[in-house]
From TrEMBL, chains A, B:
Membrane spanning stretches: none
Free-text cofactor note: Binds 1 Mg(2+) or Mn(2+) ion per subunit.
Family: Belongs to the isocitrate and isopropylmalate dehydrogenases family. LeuB type 1 subfamily.
Enzyme class: oxidoreductase
Domain Isopropylmalate dehydrogenase-like, residue spans: 2-336
Cofactor(s) in the UniProt record: Mn(2+); Mg(2+)
Keyword check for Oxidoreductase: yes
Name of the molecule in the record: 3-isopropylmalate dehydrogenase
Quaternary state and interactors: Homodimer.
Lineage of the organism: Bacteria, Pseudomonadati, Pseudomonadota, Alphaproteobacteria, Sphingomonadales
The keyword Amino-acid biosynthesis belongs to this UniProt entry's keyword annotation: yes
Record field: catalytic activity: (2R,3S)-3-isopropylmalate + NAD(+) = 4-methyl-2-oxopentanoate + CO2 + NADH
InterPro entries for this protein: IsoCit/isopropylmalate_DH_CS, IsoPropMal-DH-like_dom, Isopropylmalate_DH
Length: 341, 341
């Protein structure tokens, strides 16, 4: 396989380094080889080249089987015309990554901010539409007045709905579509299209929920959800709310997928500039992102081996500071590699 | 005072009945008198008159010193061209109610869905812009494509910012403005205007947060917030997430205020059609809404007496089913009246 690595900013380089090494170890054990190439993206690309997504980086991503991203952003680049965040939106659009998959599972309810009895057993996948809605509609900037347009087409809703229903088949067979159909025209279209697509999946149960009610339910009863299907901005908010329920966002990864082209895989944590370069970040989220990448490439046994190794390392007491331990980023990575078979 | 009562649908009539009686008792004890008039609004108005907000109802509200609302909505009216929800949006716009105040305080951390150590001490006021943004922008309905426009003007942001900064002065002096300025043009205008307004309030601390980070922080550390200032849709989502933290949404009220005209006061719970007419709902939220109304009318001692009476009734074991008890709606109302002095 060919994988384009975009280490990005802050702790991005140190966590992707461990993820790359973990995949190499899994490849050696499971009989595949990855050809890695590393490219500037985000703040580091702004500093070196001007734009956060240089043409050469995009070309390398297009030519790859998958993209592994670290993290982008930091206070240095806030307020510019081109920011690491505009680079992120640009690469999602350019690669057609319309489906963002963000799973979170509560393994140890003691670590959750929710009462253990409420958190126990929660296992939710947010399927977020990633290239439409308010993020990409026409914008009018202004000091007296400003506007953003939220637009969705039937086709955009259909294709993300299929992703959610298919994912539900491999899980517990339930999709909750989240919208604000009592207020928004785009949500009314969303609800009609999702309901129509559901007819193709008689084995999957569908219900609809308003976004405000969903925000409450994630806190009061997250176990009621299996797959949450929602549009771009609601997905941004709800997937972040979901991500804190397991107790450490350092463990979570996300996948952004298009139609046939390379997918992009990243930990959900940010660039954490305050601890960058100190070898203190947890690479577990980046390794989970790499596991999602291997799943996508068809190397599901190697993906399972990565996850198993992370779980064993943590259970064996190798813990980074976010989990209350003192293990270094590099030491955690080595512990994972040593447990891959 | 003249107050227009809009009991609305579901449990609305039974809870407002107790709130009205509680205010009458407080008026007798504190030397004021309220002239109540009751009007159809919401689903009940659709059934009787056609529109959810009949002209006569709106005229009565305009002529009143305040509006006390129960709750609107129910499965019977879903999907119509005019719904109870469109009535709610129409009355907010017609009365110019641009400021929605939704306070929530964790009194008993044992009742919170959050771990007690995280919830203890949380005391947050959401100041939500209520007549702009995606709710009221141009809409294009469609089966192939749909859109909603999010628009804000400088003046709309300024006036709600002033509400938030003033509220913070009477609290702990801290405003967190929530936006999505890394993506939305309206959020960038929002952030600039809020920052400019802050110059008038050197005694209030201001910080800015992205909406996704705010959704996480409400779950992982709600005590970091004092006043949250945000636009209409973000406020809808975040205030609902906040509202579950105390453990029972049955206790909370909200105020919607304009510029000089009558304000509208309502419990934050919905119409709960499943238990309507069974005398099982808690009127505590409606009584809290009435207390917020008395505060606004300048009867702050009577407002305090209402809150005190509710707290004493609950502490004395008079609890409706949402708090684990068996007290009826009417019995709880009587217990509150009996404790007003
Ligand atoms: C950085 C920002 C533009 C981005 C988003 O809002 O999509 C981030 O919050 C995310 O969820 O990946
Ligand atoms: C019923 C709905 C239109 C309304 C809103 O979204 O404003 C409600 O959720 C609220 O918060 O008052």
């Amino acid at each position: 396989y060919t994988v384009a690595v975009l280490p990005g900013d802050g702790i991005g380089p140190e966590v992707t380094r461990e993820a790359v090494a973990a995949v190499d170890a899994a490849g050696a054990a499971h009989g595949f080889h990855v050809r890695w190439s590393t490219h500037d993206f985000g703040g580091v690309a702004i500093d070196r080249h001007g734009p956060p997504l240089p043409d050469a980086t995009l070309a390398a991503c297009r030519a790859a089987d998958a993209v592994l991203l670290g993290a982008v952003g930091g206070p240095r680049w806030v307020g510019g015309a081109e920011t690491p965040e505009t680079g992120l939106l640009a690469i999602r659009k350019a690669l057609g990554l319309f489906a963002n998959l963000r799973p979170a599972r509560v393994d140890d309810p003691a670590l959750s901010p929710l009462k253990a009895g409420i958190a126990a057993g929660a296992d939710v996948l947010v399927v977020r539409e990633l290239t439409g809605g308010l993020y990409f509609g026409d914008k009018v900037e202004g000091d007296e007045e400003a506007s953003d347009l939220c637009r969705y087409s039937r086709g955009e809703v259909e294709r993300i709905a299929h992703v959610a229903f298919k994912a539900a088949r491999d899980r517990r067979g339930r999709v909750t579509s989240v919208d604000k159909a009592n207020v928004l025209a785009t949500s009314r279209l969303w609800r009609r299209v999702v309901t129509a697509v559901a007819a193709d999946y008689p084995d999957v149960a569908l219900d609809h929920m308003y976004v405000d009610a969903a925000a409450m339910a994630l806190v009061t009863g997250p176990t009621r959800f299996d797959v949450i299907l929602t549009e771009n901005l609601f997905g941004d908010i709800l997937s972040d709310a979901l991500s804190v329920l397991p107790g450490s966002i350092g463990l979570l990864g996300s996948a952004s997928l298009g139609d046939g082209g390379p997918g992009m895989f990243e930990p959900i944590h940010g660039s954490a500039p305050d601890i960058a370069g100190e070898d203190r970040a947890s690479p577990a989220g980046a390794i989970e992102a790499a596991a999602m990448m291997l799943d996508q490439l068809g190397e599901t046994r190697a993906a399972g081996a990565l996850r198993q190794a992370v779980a064993e390392a943590i259970a064996g007491g190798v813990r980074t500071p976010d989990l209350g331990g003192t293990a270094r980023c590099s030491a955690f990575g080595a512990a994972v590699r040593g447990r891959i078979d």
